[in-house]
TrEMBL record:
This is F0F1 ATP synthase subunit I. Its main location: membrane. Pfam families: ATP-synt_I (PF03899). Keywords: Cell membrane, Membrane, Transmembrane, Transmembrane helix. It is found in: Cell membrane. InterPro entries: ATP_synth_I. It comes from the Bacteria. The keyword Transmembrane helix applies.
Amino acid sequence: MSGSLTTEVRLKALYFVIFQTGFVALLTLKSGLFFDRDIAISVLLGGIIFLLPNTLFTLMAFMFVGARHRKYVVLSFYLGEVVKLSLTAIMFILVFVLLDVEPLALLLGFILSTLTQWTASIFLSNKNRMINGC
C-alpha cells in the first residue's frame, strides 16, 4: 500500500477514536447535568472501559497495512481482538470489585459507547461524502 494510502487508513482509524472519545465526554457531561456526580462517574468509567481496549485494538490492528504485510495484518487484528476482549473483562472486574459504582449507569455508559462503532462509521462516511462533494 502506498504511503499516502497507509496514512489515510490510519487517519480514519484515528478519527474513529477521536469521535468515540468525544462521545464519551459528551455522555459524561450530560449525565452529570441531568443526574448526579456518582452517575456521571459511573458513565465515564463505562466509557473508559470501552475506550481504552478499543484504542489499544486500533493501535495494534493498524500497525501493519498493505498486501506485503498481509500475514502481519491478520495476526495483529486477531491479537488486538484478544487483548481488547481480555482487557475489557479485566477492567469490568476491577471496577466492580474496587470501586463503588452505579452498575446500571456503568453498563449504559459502556453500551452506549460501544454503539459509537456504528454511528461513527455512518457519521464519518457522510462527512467524507460532504467534503469530497459526492
